[in-house]
Amino acid sequence: GPGKKVKLPDVDVVVPPFQHVFEGLSSYSNYSVRIRCVNEVGSSPFSPWVDFHTPEA
């Protein structure tokens, strides 16, 4: 619910396609996530933590 922040597991984004879809998130909730990009050469450092809020529906 409002006010509580959920830290999501670290995400490895395979490049290309430079995108990631989060599934199973709750509506009207606060989340925090960090990501890194991964390709055949290796992986980048993790990004800073990013906070975001999901809409009510």
From TrEMBL:
Residues 1-57 form the Fibronectin type-III domain. Gene3D superfamilies: Immunoglobulins. It comes from the Eukaryota. This is Fibronectin type-III domain-containing protein. It comes from Cirrhinus mrigala.
